[in-house]
Amino acid sequence: MSVGRHRMRSGIHGAAAAAAVGVLVVTAGGWVGYRQLAGPDCSGKIELSVAVSTELAPAVDEAATEWEEKGAAVDGTCIDVTVAASDAVEVAAVVAAKHGATLAGVGQASGTAVSPDVWIPDSSTWLLRLQTGGAAAFAPGNGASIASSPVVVAMPEPIATRLGWPQKELGWTELLARVNSDRPLKTGIVEPTRDAAGLSGLLSLMTAAASSGGATAEQDRIGALRALASGASALRQDLLAKFPTASDGTTLASALGAAALSEEDVIQYNAKQPPVPLAALYLKPSPLPLDYPYAVLPGIEPAKASAARVLFEVLTTPSFRDKLAAQSLRGPDGNWGSGFEPPQGAPSPAGGDPSAAPPPQGGIAAGGLAPDAVERAVSSWSIATLSGRMLCIIDVSGSMKKPVPTANGATRQQVTAEAARRGLNLFDDSWSIGLWVFSTNLDGPRDYREVVPIGPLSRQRSTLERSLDTVVSSSGDTGLYDTLLAAYKDVQQNWEPGKVNSIVLFTDGKNEDNDGVSQRQLLAELERIKDPDQPIQVIIIGIGTEVSKAELDTIAESAGGGAFIAADPTKISDIFLRAIALRKAPA
Fold first, then answer.
1. Contact, 130 vs 140, CB < 8 A?
2. C-alpha angle 194/195/197, rounded to 5°?
3. What is the pLDDT of residue 221?
4. Mutual orientation of helices 125-132 and 88-99 as an angle, nearest 10°?
5. Which has the closest alpha carbon to 420: 400, 405, 402, 435?
6. Which of the residues 18, 81, 246, 376 has an alpha carbon 20 to 30 A from that of 434?
7. pLDDT less than 50: residues of the chain
């Protein structure tokens, strides 16, 4: 048998056949079966492509190379493994496109990118986001963790020392207070829509804000979002470059003071002996760690699936833990292998530290993380970091008076107005927003009425808040078509470059205005007046079970947007956030 050298590729572009050969074993008996069946006589070839987060890829590649040197084979069939060092966000874009999912902030996949057979991203939150982002049939196999790295708050040592590190135990609530103080700590983050450690830190801060309770909880949450947004970086390298390069007071005051990163990031940064080392703060409660799930992607051939099962066995042997240690990573249980050099103050599960609880086997989802918590954090971030021009339109027909059983008897109208008010709080003053209401014959023969014209929030935020308090249901029906057409023309007439120009319409019924335009006339007119150079995104949120999803989908898609249904009106806020977050930024 001729065995070629196994090589690791960088990126996920190109076909797996372009890589040199690495030999694995296919057997249900796992590692024991491998030792019994390995032999020199193999023929045929099964190609298995594996995309691995960049920091973990060398360890996986080394394990595959050792297999190759042993000449492993089973049933006369060789297995070629391609290990590709890949950013998780790049693979997520590929998988999302293949399975029809939309992930806020991820963007489009490269036209030449291919989906791997096995994907080992840095966090199970990627799998969770794909499942909640529209890939309902996305059900990867396995999903158990093969490595881990705690998420920490990285802080220049002089600043950390002033806060009592390493003797003092710090928490997220204290960090939140410092972020929102009169003299705030200068914080940064890698875009949490594209970085799992950033998302973990964001989730912890949002949880701390929610747990603060009282009237300041929402204000704390929004303040933290905006503080982080002001120091956000698209790339991890760019964020690391913002840390201080000297320890004098002026440099420390102007440089980055804190950021959520992985433990591995801090170890690697300090290994380069920077002028100002970083302290790794293990804040309580512990944020979601990076858990490196082993995901066998759906749809691969049975032979490849068998090879993937054996590869997992190899990557969970005791010797693999030492390979992880060489990359500054821990094992899946949180313990580390030989040669690992933890940062000062790093907790170890072996020492009985409950704060160092390992990632749940089966992935983060198995640990009880609510998918909507991740979706809410990602959506809130997207809104807080985008600027737009939006017309909000609320149905005030008679059916909006119906009480919502899951909202303590509040009406659909009240629940909808509250969702709009909560969304308004997330928008900063760079946004321009207006408010309409609609029914039938609401303003003379017109089905709609302008409450507040579209204008900068910097000067009319309080006006919009007061206007939402006065939104009440009429006794009319639903004049959907006339209202949407008039709104489209209004937004188009004053279209603003450099911003996402959009319409968000809430309704609980079908069009009931027999004196207005028909659906055919509406679609034809929208097609006639649409201007590709001045796009308008139309988002329709259907409330309750009486809306026609088919009708809303047809209208929204024709206008250039999407329809969302909140069968339970108490979920309007979450759907509203998600819908706004999925808007496409202007080119």
1. no
2. 160
3. 78
4. 30
5. 435
6. 376
7. 1-7, 9-39, 351-357, 360-367, 586-587
Q: Which two tokens stand for residue 566?
A: 């909140």
How do strand 232-233 and strand 446-456 relate by DSSP bridges?
Answer: unpaired
Give pLDDT, residue 8: 56
Query: What was the pLDDT predicted at 75?
Result: 63
Of 121, 112, 102, give the one whose Cα is nearest residue 54.
Answer: 121
Instruction: Return the pLDDT at 154.
Output: 97
Asked if residue 484 lies in contact with residue 438, where contact means CB atoms within 8 angstroms, the answer is: no
Cα distance between residue 346 and residue 281, in whole Å: 8
Report domain extents, the chain.
Answer: 45-147+292-366, 151-281, 386-582
pLDDT value of position 226: 79
CA–CA separation, 56 vs 60, rounded Å? 7
Query: Which pLDDT does position 270 carry in this prediction?
Result: 97
How would you classify the pairing of strands 8-10 and 78-85?
A: parallel
**Is beta strand 45-52 parallel, antiparallel or unpaired with respect to 118-120?**
parallel
pLDDT of residue 67: 75
Q: What is the DSSP letter of 355?
A: G
pLDDT for 273: 96
Separation between Cα atoms, residue 45 and residue 26, nearest integer Å: 11
Task: Name the burial class of residue 173, with classes exposed (0-12), middle (13-18) and buried (19+) by CB atoms within 10 angstroms of its CB.
Answer: middle
Q: How far apart are the first and last CA of the chain?
A: 54
- Predicted confidence at residue 23, as pLDDT, reads 33
Cα angle for residues 240, 292, 316 (degrees, 5° grid): 130
**What token pair was written down for 105?**
């902030």
Residue 198 amino acid letter: G
CATH of region 386-582, choose from 1.10.10.10, 3.30.460.10, 3.40.50.300, 3.40.50.410: 3.40.50.410
Q: Which of 252, 234, 231, 235 minimizes the C-alpha distance to 243?
A: 252
- DSSP letters of 172-223? HHHHHHHHTSSS---EEEE-TTT-HHHHHHHHHHHHHHHHT-STTHHHHHHH
Of all residues in the chain, what percent are helix, strand and coil, respectively (each to 5)?
40, 20, 40
Q: How far is CA 163 from CA 166, 167, 358, in A?
A: 9, 10, 27
d(C-alpha 347, C-alpha 299), whole Å = 40
Per-residue model confidence (pLDDT) at position 208: 86
What is the H or E stretch that residue 558 is in? helix 549-559
Q: What is the pLDDT of residue 105?
A: 81
The top-level CATH class assigned to 45-147+292-366 is alpha beta
Name the phi and psi angles at 85, rounded to 5: -75, 115
Q: Where in 285-396 does DSSP place strands (E)? A: 293-296, 388-395
Confidence at residue 44, expressed as pLDDT on a 0 to 100 scale: 74
